[in-house]
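Module 6 notes. Inverse folding takes a fixed backbone as the condition and produces residue identities as the prediction. Think of it as a translation problem where the source language is geometry and the target language is the twenty amino acids. Below is one complete input and output pair. Work through it position by position during the lab.
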């Protein structure tokens, strides 16, 4: 029976603990930051704060201590918000063994460094002269609630460590959760992060009452600018046509369970970002942070990302959504296939 540690008990971390725990083939320890949430999971077998109504199997142990969580784990799944990744791995690195497989399931970029999560983790672990970690990125179209209740879901594990990818595929897959392998962690991570910004934009359109034409155009052109940045960073175009690209983009732009889309809907209705965030009760919309990082990364790589830039202006500069749409629609005419 394999030992798996999940660090982060938000909606997705909790869902992964349910998926892995329900098979009975794993001993799962779930690290929970909030002591009250940890106590509730232990006593009631449910995470009412982040994933209400979903039973957590008895094979999942809730922990508030990282030493206890990581002890003996063959696979460590990292599911904390992106802006906490560096700090948590600073605390965790001395507890990890060289052979430990690390799976990053956080869909975001670090705002200041512009790094993907596997890059942040690798940087932290190697800082003291340690060997590069065995690491991969898990991503794809996967609302936590639907995956936890057993709806058929397909995702991908991306790593240049083929043994890690195959091991995760074997350990995580079951009759309702299908895991594909991929050798393009850059594309998979950037796809999972950048789509959150486009999802906020899709929400803005919905909040303004725009129709299907508008959202279809937004998704298509959003994918185009995501792909440009992925290619500039060394990723592959075909990855963006897969689960971690187009699949996740469509899900978060159209699904009512998307927190990023929900933030955009409220922005489109005229509410201000601080007010929206105050009503989220600790839930995180990664696209808010990713938008700033994506703009910085695009500038550093010389890539034009007009939708992302307009979303940054709405989120962080107070620009009105209608003005942003007007600026997008009146840009100089371009070729669809040859330019931005």
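Target side of the pair, the amino acids:
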């Amino acid at each position: 029976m394999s030992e798996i540690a999940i660090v982060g008990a938000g909606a997705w971390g909790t869902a992964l603990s349910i998926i892995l725990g329900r098979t009975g083939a794993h001993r799962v320890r779930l690290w929970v930051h909030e002591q009250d949430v940890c106590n509730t999971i232990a006593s009631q077998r449910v995470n009412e704060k982040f994933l209400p109504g979903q039973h957590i199997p008895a094979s999942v142990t809730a922990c508030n201590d990282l030493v206890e969580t990581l002890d003996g784990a063959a696979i460590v799944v990292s599911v904390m918000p992106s802006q906490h990744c560096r700090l948590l791995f600073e605390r965790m690195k001395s507890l990890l063994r060289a052979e430990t497989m690390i799976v990053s399931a956080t869909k975001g970029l670090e705002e200041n460094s512009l790094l993907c999560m596997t890059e942040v983790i690798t940087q932290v672990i190697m800082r003291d002269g340690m060997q590069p970690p065995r690491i991969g990125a898990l991503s794809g179209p996967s609302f936590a609630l639907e995956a936890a209740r057993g709806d058929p879901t397909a995702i991908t594990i991306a790593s240049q460590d083929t043994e890690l990818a195959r091991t995760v595929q074997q350990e995580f897959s079951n009759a309702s959760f299908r895991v594909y392998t991929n050798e393009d962690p850059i594309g998979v991570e950037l796809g999972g992060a950048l789509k959150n910004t486009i999802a906020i934009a899709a929400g803005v359109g919905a909040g303004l009452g725009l129709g299907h034409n508008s959202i279809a155009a937004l998704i298509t052109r959003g994918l185009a600018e995501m792909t440009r940045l992925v290619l500039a960073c060394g990723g592959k175009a075909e990855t963006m046509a897969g689960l971690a690209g187009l699949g996740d983009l469509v899900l978060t732009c159209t699904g009512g369970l998307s927190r990023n889309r929900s933030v955009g809907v409220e922005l489109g209705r005229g509410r201000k970002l601080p007010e929206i965030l105050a009503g989220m009760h600790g839930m995180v919309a990664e696209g808010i942070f990713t938008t700033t990082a994506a703009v910085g990364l695009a500038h550093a790589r010389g890539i034009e990302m007009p939708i992302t830039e307009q979303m940054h202006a709405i989120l962080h500069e107070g620009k009105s959504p209608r003005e942003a749409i007007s600026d997008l629609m009146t840009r100089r005419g371009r070729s669809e296939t040859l330019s931005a």
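Reference fact for the lab report: The two ends are 50 Å apart (CA to CA).
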